[in-house]
Amino acid sequence: MAAKSDGAVAAAGPGPEGAAGGPRGSAGGRGEATESAGGPGVTGAGGPGPRYELRDCCWVLCALLVFFSDGATDLWLAASYYLEGQHTYFGLTLLFVLLPSLVVQLLSFRWFVYDYTEPAGAPGPAVSTKDSGAGGPVISTKDSVVAFRTKEGSPELGSRPAPSSASTYRRRCCRFCIWLLQTLVHLLQLGQVWRYLRTMYLGLQSRWRGERLRRHFYWRMLFESADVSMLRLLETFLRSAPQLVLQLSLVVHEGGAPKLLPALSISASLVSLAWTLASYQKVLRDSRDDKQPLSYKGAVAQVLWHLFAIAARSLAFALFASVYKLYFGIFIVAHWCVMTFWVIQGETDFCMSKWEEIIYNMVVGIIYIFCWFNVKEGRSRRRVALYYCIVLLENAALTGFWYSSRNFSTDFHSLILVCVVASSFALGVFFMCVYYCLLHPNGPMLSPQAPGCIFPKAPGPCGPPADAVTSPPRSLPRTTGPERDGASVGGERAGTPTPPVFQVRPGLPPTPVARTLRTEGPVIRIDLPRKKYPAWDAHFIDRRLRKTILALEYSSPTTPRLQYRSIGTSQELLEYETTV
């Protein structure tokens, strides 16, 4: 996925564009974030810098445990069906394991090929740097024939002696070994395991290295975390979700107490779905420094929320499918179509092309079959409430139709299953309320807020940036000192408040930022508008842009800031000033 990443040359210091700083200083909810108000899309990379902690390593280890338990129980159950002679169940169980895994491995290997393939005619991503008159280096992401070129009088970052034949041979051998290893890893369906291990390696390297290399490794760790979280999200809803419904349907159809292997498979699939959703949201918030990071308490609350909500949803599906198989298929397709249309109507902006956006919306429609997934910027409580009202009605209808086919007088087991569906859904809603009311990164939902400001403690005003308009409109005279103090001017009595000629309506509150703005140092300007949360930034989606940024960041003596093109703010103020 390649996007237009040839931006105009950027200078150090603040500008009208929205800046996306380097990796956050307290990613993953580690410590309290510094509160600061800024313009829309403006963030910085100041502070002590990012730090990878041991709890992050433990989180990745738990993710690996969930991954292996889910795959191992499904394969074990498939082998058990084969040995028992139940070839239909064996085929379905194995199909839901292998087909999603092949799709995800192909996508992962495609990303690897793009990341490790050098552009033709250049040793790496084509970039250029030169000195700036503002005191900081100017860095551009425009394509250039000469990589890391500098202006005369500045140190040449990219000038290196010609490599010897021995070093060239070693380099080719290393590349061949990497390609061979990655091919074997993906053929063994272990692409995500490799990415999880690499995430831990890069995080630990960022913890042990010096300041410059620490930031570089942390950036690469965030990129790797984003990749594996997107891959896991795709795989779990293509594999674990249908596997969960299938095994629950078989257990309900057989009746009685479930056997050990189906129970283990169901539990592993359920935990995998809940864990992947919470991990995805955590990595997404950690990657965006215009949002507060998600704490581990909030992540655990999300796991419990999705665990119970998906359990109720899947059990309702299994009960209905055990009796009405054809109508269940019709219901799933209809629900998916409605939810996909709802997502498309919301005009999401996640991908870099139109067709990728359509495919993404279709995948989100699959997710909406089982649980809530935020895809739109802004307050989501009304959309969450509407979605769960629809889910509640659907669960009640599906469970009611199934219960109506049972014997009411003698089948006490059916009544217990209905109560399990209701209580599990209630627990899911309870933990969702706990998350939004107590553990949300933006603060408790019901806490009082200062009027007009995002941060009550912020010393600055809440309107547009102070340097956006540096002088009053030219069509109006300046207000003199006596007029401001209420003195008698033009025959009017002193102290009489003069009505303003015009009033500027205050703008929307700025997006909360996780730390203080940083205005010094090099800037990488990206000629793209920054995507709004909950979308990933373009440098996480566009791999060509990612390679260029990593090369610039590694060649720079200090960690550069990322600056996206801002639309609307400066043009709107200029137009208003001109018309007045």
TrEMBL record:
Subcellular location(s) per record: Cell membrane; Membrane
Compositional bias segments (type: Low complexity): 1-14
Recorded superkingdom: Eukaryota
InterPro entries named in the record: XK-rel (IPR018629), XK-related_scramblase (IPR050895)
Topology class, membrane: Multi-pass membrane protein
Ranges that cross the membrane: 58-83, 89-109, 259-278, 298-319, 326-346, 358-375, 384-403, 415-438
Pfam families in the record: XK-related
Alphabetically ordered keywords of this record: Cell membrane, Membrane, Transmembrane, Transmembrane helix
Protein name in the entry: XK-related protein
Species whose genome carries this gene: Rangifer tarandus platyrhynchus (Svalbard reindeer)
Origin organism lineage: Eukaryota, Metazoa, Chordata, Craniata, Vertebrata
